[in-house]
Amino acid sequence: MSDSELLTSLQAKFIGRDTVYPTVDGGRSPRIYLDSAASTLMMGPAYEVGHEFLEHYASTHSDLHYAARGASQAFEWAHEKVLEFVDASPENYCSFFAGSGATAGFNRMAASLSRARPERDVVLVSEMEHHSNDLPHRHHTSQVVHVPCLGEFERYGALDMDKLQAIVDEYGDRINYIAVTGASNVSGAITPLADVARIVHAVGAYLLVDASQMIAHAPVSMDDADIDVLVFSGHKIYAPGSPGAVIAKNDLLNAIKPAELGGGMVDDVYIAEYMPTATLPDREEAGTPNIVGAITLGAVLNLLTRVGMDKVREKEIGLIDYAWQEMSKIDGVTLYGPDPGEIPRTGTMTFNIKGFDHGLTAAALNDYHNIQVRNGCFCAHPYVRELLKRELWEMDIDPDAPNAEADVERKRGMARASLGLYTTQADLEALVAAIRDLVERRDEIIELYEPIGSNGYRHRNFEPPAVDIFNPERLLENFLAEPVQTIAG
């Protein structure tokens, strides 16, 4: 099978892409899933690998029975696939799994690096960051300096490299590291990582990259960009339920103490002392690992490596350009972040419809058109406030006001459509048509919804019965109704 054929085959093999839901008009149709920046759908072949592994399940770190030997080898294979996918040579880098997403990796590295180099009391963080790559650094560091972006108001985005250089010149060898996103989860703006590395390495600082929004959309080479630490979530790259992945330079890991203690990361333990192992990645993976999730993630990365992320990126650029151009033509629609013709972006597009709160936009797209998008501030509140500043000022709302009332929260956010490998041109054509429909029926639709909570909306006359939504209790009842089967002997 050629690379192109494999890509086409994979696009059709995602679990849940064609799940059917009801719509306001009484019909039922497959959903259009445009919420991949929050979590991607599961890649079918990778799920099958994880499911098959369960037939052989055992814990790792033993080879004295067949299943344990197989589990240990498969878990090691998953580490190798991570390194291969991000082009990190095993001579220089180590990969390990942590927690249920990227957040565990950020907290671990922030704590470890602050302890290892206390004399370097400044950390740089871009203003685009998700809270998971901002708050851990604030917690563990004496001083966080936020690096501004280019542009202003709706077009604010992409790291301002001149400002970064000026900040590095100012703080010099006080800087421990910079934490920056590979691509924004709000605007999709891509960061020139190799350029950032050159600037911060000149003063002996590390580069820590949040690749969660970049990993499924564009190639990354840790060797070429000289990245010190890269962290991403498996659920952002077609492996829901997988652990977070951390890839770091061996020299860096060897210079810090293990962040978590427990079984599997020690050579020996006595009443009076314990000896952590020097073996990587064992030293960084205390406890029983999420073996199934790691193997599933390894399977995804293996298949995408075979396809080539350059081909994935090429496919997505065409979809980004189409959606941006068509949505820009709709009167009353505001798009946020830099123009993709000027700043490289991933397939994440945030927008608002004039007269609609962001929650109403998301609810109406779901109820009338079965299009699933996210809304709100996307755990990137400072960045979203900058993008919305002009509009909020025009509404006499202070975007930086603490303890905002619910009606302020309804305005302080946007809707977000985000693409995955399974997204097609037809999906985006449907999105554009649906937005046009909402604009044309603005007054009618506003009257049909009532606000719920701080930023939610509910249709006054349409509420699908529970049977149309996943119901674990119902599935268990079906199981309990089945005839009892016993194991012989």
Give a written overview of the molecule.
With 489 residues, the chain is α/β, with parallel strands linked by helices. The chain has 2 domains: 3-41 and 308-468, Aspartate Aminotransferase, domain 1, CATH 3.90.1150.10; 47-307, 3-Layer(aba) Sandwich (Aspartate Aminotransferase, domain 2). It is 39% helix and 17% strand. The protein has 17 helices and 21 strands. It has helices at residues 3-11, 44-53, 66-85, 102-116, 135-140, 161-171, 193-201, 222-225, 250-254, 291-307, 309-328, 358-369, 381-394, 406-411, 425-440, 442-447, 472-480, and strands at residues 14-15, 20-22, 28-30, 32-33, 42-43, 93-98, 122-126, 143-147, 175-181, 206-210, 229-233, 244-249, 266-269, 274-276, 333-335, 348-353, 371-372, 374-376, 414-418, 449-452, 456-459. The strands form 7 sheets. It has a 7-stranded mixed beta sheet with strand order 6-12-11-10-9-7-8, with helices on both faces. Strand 9 (175-181), helix 7 (193-201) and strand 10 form a beta-alpha-beta unit. Helix 1 crosses helix 10, helix 11 runs parallel beside helix 15 (425-440) and helix 12 crosses helix 15 (425-440). The longest helix has 20 residues, at 66-85.
